[in-house]
Amino acid sequence: MNLENTVKYHFAKSTLISDSPRATASDSLTGTDVMAAMGMTQERAAMGYSAFLGKMGISYNDRARAIELLAEYALTKCDKVAALRKLDDAIKPLVMRQLATFAFEDYSRSAASVKQCDCCSGQGFIEADVFTMKSHYTMRLPQWAKDLKQSPSDFEVKRKVKEVVRVLCSACKGKKVVSCACKDCHGRGKAVNQDLTEKQGVPVLADCKRCGGRGYERIPSTEAYAAVCSITDAISVATWEKSVKRFYDQLITKFDIEEAWAEAQLKQITK
Q1: Please, are residues 174 and 168 in contact by the beta-carbon 8 Å criterion?
Q2: Is 203 helix (H, G, I), strand (E, B) or coil?
Q3: DSSP state of 20
Q4: How does pLDDT run across 48-59, given as a tens digit for each residue?
């Protein structure tokens, strides 16, 4: 039993909670066995199991717990980085918390994820300048003009008026969010390689060059740096690129390691 199989127990469609149908052998896991296995896995690999449940959107509490556990882990390892070691004792936990939050967001992102639209800032509408043509008449049509068979348009004054109106955002179509899937491969991770296609004469699929085969775009590290700068200005851009960014990438990898450990523990418990 792996971690992906535990998701269905949080969204049960029937009253039967079991690892396999009733028609299988009698040694299949019962609902009690599954619940006990989840509890033991949570005890042995708290960070990995909580991170997985938070990534799947099952529990917000598990998401918060995973971030808190990673922040505590970061506090024990941050002294190895000189720029983080020099931070004040009151500022350091806040910075670690911010880095842990962005690390979880990057870890939990997939091609099915959505993010706030940058074009409209999550409003669904944008303000646009619209020019409209308006007109008015300087006077009522006099009798002599009627005798000369002049039209009212001869006394019409036209002017162009600039107005600011709210229009539907063209990027998100009013949904306020956009997909995180790669725009080239559309989340598949594979795209047509034009060079190989021209050489062989048939479409050749290869890893997408834009996303590196992931199928989605990662959170730019500059956003994490901007969040850190809102807390303290002790970390410069050069320092971030040289040492702190490497530490931030290690925090993202830590979630993957802990999730693999949690899955190994669950398989060992349910084998």
Answers
A1: yes
A2: coil
A3: S
A4: 999 999 998 888
> Which residues 6+ apart lie within 8 Å of 88 measured at CB?
232
Distance between CA 39 and CA 208 in Å, rounded?
40
pTM: 0.73
Bridge-based pairing of strands 190-192 and 177-179 is unpaired
At the second CATH level, the architecture of 3-109+218-270 is Orthogonal Bundle (1.10)
Question: At a CB cut-off of 8 Å and minimum separation 6, what does 252 contact?
Answer: 103, 106, 107
Task: List the chain domain ranges.
Answer: 3-109+218-270, 114-179
Instruction: Say if residues 126 and 119 touch (Cβ distance below 8 Å).
Output: yes
Separation between Cα atoms, residue 239 and residue 254, nearest integer Å: 22
Encode pLDDT of 151-174 as tens digits: 666 667 788 888 888 888 888 888
Kindly report the number of other CB atoms within 10 A of residue 42's CB atom. 18
**In angstroms, rounded to a whole number, what is the distance separating the alpha carbons of residues 122 and 116?**
5
The alpha-helical segments, DSSP class H, found in the chain are 3-6, 31-44, 46-55, 60-77, 82-85, 92-108, 143-147, 194-200, 221-229, 237-239, 245-270
Angle 77-80-83 from CA coordinates, rounded to 5°: 110
